[in-house]
Amino acid sequence: MRTSVKKLATAVSTSVALMAAGQAAAEIQIGIAGPMTGPVAQYGDMQFSGARMAIEQINANGGVMGEELVAVEYDDVCDPKQAVTVANSLVNDGVGFVVGHLCSSSTQPASDIYEDEGILMVTPASTSPEITERGYELVFRTIGLDSMQGPVAGNYIASQNPERVAIVHDKQQYGEGIATAVRDTLKDQGVEIAMFEGITAGDKDFSSLVTKLKQADVDYVYYGGYHPELGLILRQARQADLDAKFMGPEGVGNKDINTIAGEAAEGLLVTLPPAFDQKAENQELVKAFQDKGEDPSGPFVLTSYTAVQLIANGIEQAESTDPFEVAQALRSGTFQTPIGTVEYDEAGDMKSFEFVVYEWHSDGSKTPVN
Amino acid sequence: MQDLLYFSQQLINGLTIGSTYALIAIGYTMVYGIIGMINFAHGEIYMIGAYTALIAITGLASLGVAWLPVILIVALICAMLVSSSMGWAVERVAYRPVRGRHRLIPLISAIGMSIFLQNYVHLAQGSRNIGFPALIEGGFNFGSGDGFQMSLSYMQITIFITTLICMTALSLFIARSRTGRACRAVSQDLGMANLLGIDTNRIISATFVIGAALAAVAGLLLGMYYGSVDPLFGFIAGLKAFTAAVLGGIGSIPGAMLGGLILGVAESMTSGYLSGEYKDVISFSLLILILLFKPTGLLGKPEVEKI
């Protein structure tokens, strides 16, 4: 017993010493927090691959103010409880800057901790408006808001002159938020909303919902949420011969929906950030991803890349690694990034961000419709 | 007419899902009936059954086997074999060593097993949703051309028939076979059965194996019906099936069947006529109400001890 206590004590003191050594070296730690595992891990893959690439390239070009960036990665499983744990370990690890989180419902509770502890956060994917509504000083994003994405989807559906529209959401912050924005836009345009209903994320059986949609005889269904549920709804709707057009936000737009829904994913409409990887000025960067065997076309790859780049630019402009000074620099500057020119307003939102409607195909490709 | 069709459609949806709840619930109820513990790892056994079936189907497809009955039967046999051995092993490793101790100990051991199996599949198969190929497609349609059309898919028919066969076979087995009689004896009085020369360890193992095999059948059926599997898929289904078992009267096999069907229909009717958001509220309120007025469940026998 005594020896094991001794061993433990040695182990603890060694690790403390190692941690201290880590902090003493001239490095800037960048936390990357997002889902590495769990049902939406594929979005996490986009985030990690984008952020790692940015860190790699910045270091290859001499780092930031002569210091190297070091990625510290955390898995939040897109679970709010886990996100809080992750945020606390970031605090303990002495990280000053975070790229993350991904899911709005994780970003929100984690951002409370970051703001309190003086850590600057840039989320590359969370679109819930509430995140930047609280007057926080250290919260930024490199993506648009549901309140911008919802109207794009709503206006598109309204322009198709549908007779009846159903809106379904997964009762989570992201899904319900965007579904509400779509509903409000449609109402303003005078479109009849036949149904506005929540489902439980993680459910597998949507036969009752599909039957109800059939009964309501809707010609458009908007789904606010992520792909695991929408994939099943599409598949079960096809089996039940439901003849309606489906539409969803960027949370449903990834190739995993094809493995779940198969043929039923053909013709699904998705609002996504514009395909940054198609822009001429990003081709060199796209090639760098392809050389590593990674796919830069996911919606959050280049937003994550940009998040790291903005942190680096902010540090350089502020000539300091103090998160508050960097936040000040981000608010006052104009930055050229792979997702375009970025300027921030007081809340930490980009002054302009565009969403585009795409049609999804059963082979996982997409084509813009407007 | 329209309303009637809509009602029947929701009834069919409910009965389909309810009959698979019943298949899973059997595992909970049999184990409880015999050793008075709740096997919380049962939902994971069901999930493993679904994964095994998927692996078998993919394997056969890559070997070029295209004849549907062969694929289904091989997948079913693989799933039942793997799940049954898993059920047997779980009992040997996690429950037998702690049997006869305080009642909380096997319960905690069961929860630990459930977490272990879930995370094992997370590691081995990844945590993403994996699509399940739709092997049985098409169905019958009822109703006029432009109004609401009721559909009864071949998949739903398959689920009904398979469940019916499994349930009948199980009831016959329990009522007629030697092992079935021994099962009943053990469930009445384990100590006495032991004294009378029944190998109770073997009977308990058999219970776990039977429950796991039925869960594997449900895994294959539901995997095909829904179209995707993920490592957490057993947890929710297990919770629902456990509710069904309690609703029908835990320890009673006809009770598990009845409980499963009632729960399934209650869920689909709530989604159909109220809102999908209230699905779980209604089904669990139903459970609380039944337990308040009939604490042993619908078909349960009154017993002195309960967990």
UniProtKB/TrEMBL annotation, chain A:
Signal peptide segment: 1-26
Q: What is this protein called?
A: L-leucine-binding protein/L-isoleucine-binding protein/L-valine-binding protein
Q: What family name appears in the similarity comment?
A: Belongs to the leucine-binding protein family.
Arranged from A to Z, the UniProt key words for this protein are:
Amino-acid transport, Signal, Transport
User: Would I find Signal among this entry's keywords?
Assistant: yes
Q: Which InterPro entries match?
A: Leu-bd, Leu_Ile_Val-bd, Peripla_BP_I
Q: Where is the Leucine-binding protein domain?
A: 27-364
| GO terms under biological process | amino acid transport
Q: Name one Pfam family in it.
A: Peripla_BP_6
Q: Which Gene3D superfamilies match?
A: 3.40.50.2300
From TrEMBL, chain B:
The record's annotation in Pfam families points to:
BPD_transp_2
Q: Has the keyword Cell inner membrane been applied to this entry?
A: yes
Bilayer disposition of the protein: Multi-pass membrane protein
Its subcellular locations are: Cell inner membrane
Which keywords appear in this protein's UniProt record, sorted alphabetically?
A: Amino-acid transport, Cell inner membrane, Cell membrane, Membrane, Transmembrane, Transmembrane helix, Transport
- GO MF annotation: an example: L-isoleucine transmembrane transporter activity
Record-annotated membrane-spanning stretches: 20-38, 45-64, 70-90, 102-121, 154-175, 203-226
Q: Which PANTHER family match?
A: BRANCHED-CHAIN AMINO ACID TRANSPORT SYSTEM PERMEASE PROTEIN LIVH, HIGH-AFFINITY BRANCHED-CHAIN AMINO ACID TRANSPORT SYSTEM PERMEASE PROTEIN LIVH
The text of the family note is: Belongs to the binding-protein-dependent transport system permease family. LivHM subfamily.
Name the record gives this protein: L-leucine ABC transporter membrane protein /L-isoleucine ABC transporter membrane protein /L-valine ABC transporter membrane protein
Name the source organism.
Answer: Marinobacter pelagius
